[in-house]
């Protein structure tokens, strides 16, 4: 299993790009908990903390595809680094100003979310130029999905460690400085500086003019709903079975399941149509959500939470392949950013939807939401099966341009990115 990942990590710049991207995304991964802890340390209410975290999330969802389009137009260093600096500066304003001037607090967190650099989409755009082989790129997508689970598990621990050692204000400042350094490591790398998007057709819809991409976004909106609903449904269950510690174990088990599933999925090469494979993975994802409604004791529930996460990372990794395949030329970073945004929006919808469901029917009905959302996602993929089928002329030969003085041509991945 490890050989495929080691082959990726041995590639020149692969470790630097993966590590830099993960470190650069730490402020985004930890923003919600860092904002909540800081507001509470400042004496603010939970309502204010939740509202500020929500503003950050909405601004982030808006900014990712916009910045992704700018990356496709102007390159990574000219967009990613200024965005990281602006986002970090806005969060520093929030950390120093506090919650006293509420308008300033809202403006600062909105700016931090809006200017969060699209490092995630940028990394996926770089993989084809770093690895060259399509099979290796698919493995890298799976490794990327696994690394995300590690980050989202370790990130909150880093926040709480900073808070316990220093303060909530220090946690905001330190994590954002680290994030800027991570972005700097990525954009100063030769692959990032050399990367150019394929020539693009001017169109105001950008990546969204692709029917295949729209189908994927429609399906993964409901995957996001499922993820958001579990985080809410687990709260009343934990309250009845041991409190915050149980909730932490359930969320950790969900991430561990995704990590294990993604590691297994990326350890082999997959033949056949990725659209058909994605339908199978999402079907398994939906099926594995259903046992959560059994709500056994704590140990059993932790195991079921791990099972619920097993097919998440493989489904996301497979979706990456299809996003690259269906992104119009010159829009690959924007297309990946749209997928990130869609899952984020779906998670927000899931948390908002499941709250009233839990209040009306308890944890049982709350845990029914992810299964229903997963089923709807599968229905969307099934209904759009023809649209998601591999487009004609997929294995095109893309000509190099400004980075290849010989104008050589080589078989390339569909993103058309240049190394």
Terminal-residue CA separation: 28 Å
Record the strand order, biggest sheet: 1-2
CA-based shape: globular
Largest sheet: 2 strands, antiparallel
The ordered H/E elements are HHHHHHHHHHHHHHHHHEE
Output the number of helix runs. 17
Q: Mean pLDDT score, rounded?
A: 82
| Quaternary structure classification | single chain
Pairing-aware structural class of the strands and helices?
A: mainly alpha
The whole-angstrom Rg is 21 Å
Low-confidence stretches: 392-419
Q: Please give the number of β-strands.
A: 2
Percentage of residues assigned to helices? over 70%
Beta-strand content estimate: under 5%
Topology:
Elements: H1 2-10, H2 14-24, H3 26-41, H4 46-74, H5 77-97, H6 102-114, H7 119-131, H8 134-165, H9 168-187, H10 190-194, H11 211-241, H12 244-266, H13 274-289, H14 298-309, H15 312-326, H16 332-383, H17 385-388, E1 397-399, E2 409-411
Antiparallel strand pairs: 1-2
Helix pairs in contact: 1-8, 2-7, 2-9, 3-4, 3-8, 3-9, 4-5, 4-6, 4-16, 5-6, 5-9, 7-8, 7-16, 8-9, 8-12, 8-15, 11-12, 11-15, 11-16, 12-14, 12-15, 13-14, 13-15, 13-16
Model description:
By secondary structure, the protein is mainly α. It has helices at 2-10, 14-24, 26-41, 46-74, 77-97, 102-114, 119-131, 134-165, 168-187, 190-194, 211-241, 244-266, 274-289, 298-309, 312-326, 332-383, 385-388, and strands at 397-399, 409-411. The protein has a two-stranded antiparallel sheet with strand order 1-2. The longest helix has 52 residues, at 332-383. It is globular, with a radius of gyration of 21 Å.
